[in-house]
Amino acid sequence: MNGAQALIRTLVDCGVDTCFMNPGTSEMHFVAALDAVPEMRSVLALFEGVATGAADGYGRMAGRPAATLLHLGPGLGNGLANLHNARRARTPIVNIVGDHATHHKQYDAQLESDIETVARNVSTFIRWSTKADEVGTDAADAVSAASGPPGQVATLVLPADVSWSEGGLPGRLPAPARPEPPADAAIAEIAAALQSGEPACVFVGGRAGRAELLAQASAIAAATGAKLLGETFPARLERGAGRAPLDRLAYLAEFAAMQLDGLRHIVLIDAKAPVSFFAYPGKASDLVPEGCRVHVLAPPDGDLATALAMLAERIGASTAPVQQPAAPGLPTGALTADAVCAALGALMPEGAIVSDEANTSGLTAPGRTTGSAPHDWLCLTGGAIGQGLPVAIGAAVACPDRKVIALESDGSALYTMQSWWTMARENLDVTTILFNNRSYALLNMELGRVGAEAGGPRAKDMLDLARPDMDFTAIAKGLGLHATRATTADEFVDQLRRALATPGPTVIEAMVPSIL
């Protein structure tokens, strides 16, 4: 058994049986070893950012790591943006980066680079495997580190000669560490703050977006009269009819400040204290109101379920509000971004998974789908665009029995459009709704918000996606997908209904005006 075979056997034995990859020469022995370990599913991506984003989507839905396989430092660099998003989502990923053979590195060949410096931006665990008989142990340690809690990106660097050398031995997953139980005194302090009569907020994120934990947080808020808010862009939010409703913190800092105004206590439940996404002239970066105390229920590596249960018991919280079924009417007439969101709310199938990168065009999507059939909502956690389509790939691979809907904007889609080829190749059940307003609408808004001048024709030209207009329907067809274009609400409703009823990958290009 060579090093590559030992690596893949270890990953599979440790529960990592899916690898999203864009390999090169230094990774060829890993590729060859796939036939020796058929339990490993390998999914090819045409760009590293697709592979890393897909691993993010997979980890969010499967609750366990997928692996990536990237080619040297430049390949890692190409995948870095979506690894950044995965880090912010606390997604477990085992990130395998090929390297030059150990004896070749001294020659500074064309693809030689400082892999560790690149990896350190997104990885808390970085290890070089230097011997074939150590690869298995290194891989098992990487899986353990990635799995957390919290989930994280663990990067394993694999030199080519370590892959091809004989003597590889599979490794075993270390026994998981038990999280520290919450202290009674800390729970009592938080309970006292919530029951003090002072304005308070229960602020949820991360693991607390899952239905059972969210219901407990909601019951705690209801029992104490506290406001319940969620992160602006949660990694995974289980929502819809029959589940606890959750308002999310606004993206715009001034609106978020209004939601938080007057609070004296914020209780963080697997979330960080709210801050503004960017700095703006004359506006605060820290959104916690002056004089407000921030309480942490459990740290990221803590036993969140136990902490929530203890707090609920101390407060006497038992019943959470439940979202009643409610669907918007099907739109007719002109096609607008809101009409698209209304149609989605009306036609959403039960168990759907929504990968949301619709940006400005999708502003009304959360509201329009609040009472839709139960579903999962995956957001752009780290703000690095180009996530929506790759995350949809990973979600579809992790949950092949569920319909995945990618809400995508024209500007963001261009970053990782190679995703459509992988969807077609794997015949993934993903419906992409592509909002085409031919503009970077969000940046048009930000141009004024950052205090820049209004912008002349040259500035505005840099935020415009016309000249030439792009034909996303033709591009999708060229990448192997069924694709249609809707110019009216009636056309969109008909196309969406058919796409949701038909297994396999589909793209609907919705021609909408900009809402900004």
In short:
The protein is of the alpha/beta class and 516 residues long. Helices cover 37% and strands 18% of the residues. α10 runs parallel beside α12.
Polypeptide structure, described:
- 37% of the residues lie in helices and 18% in strands.
- The chain has 516 residues and is of the alpha/beta class.
- The strands form three sheets. Strands 9-14-13-15-16-18-17 form a seven-stranded mixed β-sheet, sandwiched between helices.
- It has three domains: 162 residues, Thiamin diphosphate (ThDP)-binding fold, Pyr/PP domains (Rossmann fold), CATH 3.40.50.970; 132 residues, Rossmann fold (3-Layer(aba) Sandwich), CATH 3.40.50; 175 residues, Rossmann fold (3-Layer(aba) Sandwich), CATH 3.40.50.
- It is built from 21 helices and 18 strands.
- Helix 3 crosses helix 15, helix 9 crosses helix 12 and helix 13 runs parallel beside helix 21.
- It starts with a helix and ends in a 5-residue tail after the last strand.
- The model has no long low-confidence stretch (mean pLDDT 94).
- The longest helix has 15 residues.
- The chain is globular and about 65 Å long.
